[in-house]
Amino acid sequence: MSNAVLALSAAGRISSEDAGNIFQSVLAAFNLSGEQAVSVSNKIAQSSRIGSQEISNVAAILQKSGSAFASAGVDLNMALGVIEGVGDKYLGKSEELGTALNSTLSN
Hints:
By secondary structure, the protein is an all-alpha fold. Helices cover 76% and strands 0% of the residues. Helix 2 packs parallel to helix 4, helix 3 packs parallel to helix 5 and helix 4 crosses helix 5.
């Protein structure tokens, strides 16, 4: 998992501590194992390249709404698609989008 943390840290220009926290919350929310960390890192980076949200924003949104996505039966791939699908409406407002998705999925 340490390689994935370092890769996400470098790609997202975030601290390795923040990257580690992201992985802990995302892996826990979606019930994924540590062996899947590289795949998770790649998916987050890929969604950021395709969509409008920066890696750090995608990660913050996942931290806020990941458990709600998982509880609603939405897997990580679909969650990333939703985040990027509506992300352009929330540029610079990752906390707001994370909260909105969490509220929407929890109801």
